[in-house]
Amino acid sequence: MMLPVTAPRSLKEKQRQEREELILQAAEEVLAEKGYYETSIDEIAARVGIAKGTVYLHFPGKEDLVIAILERNAQAIVELVEATVAIAQSNREKLEAILRFVYGGFFDPGKRHLMQLPYIVMNSAELRRVFVEKKGCMRVKWDRLEALVASILEDGKAAGEFDKTMPTPVMISTFFSLLSPRSFERLIASNQMPVSDYVKHLGRFYFKGIAAIQGE
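-> structure tokens emitted (216 positions)
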């Protein structure tokens, strides 16, 4: 059977996609440095070395740039979390791996850009409005992550690792509430506590609450 031949991307299309990626990278850098309101299309264009009008050919406005970055980062985060969970053994280890990934990524200069933008969005009323209006694609990605955590929790209940009497939605909500490294940033810095130690304590706090009661 003949397999369908995928037409190669034209040079023009390849250049367009590469330029779009450079714009997104520059926009993410400026957003991280200056915040949403101080970020300008002029500076993004200057960093890429293109005209301001070229940026608008790819993205109608600053809001669209932010949404595009969020979608790209969300996709990367979900894929990395899935890969991290895949090599863990027990269900508890899988959830601990997610905690380590989020906190390790947030405080790692090389990965922090993936985690930083959601906090910029949450600190801007205007961006929160835009996010709610345009978050369709994002919702799919976060639903995928939520489904992964739900599956781990249900498997843990079935295996006797977690308390079967506790509603899974409550367990999910509580777990996601722990994925807030910005909330603990000052605490980690002031106590000079290694991130790995802090994640260990968070894990103990969570898992002691959902562990199955022995002898049931």
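The radius of gyration is 21 Å.
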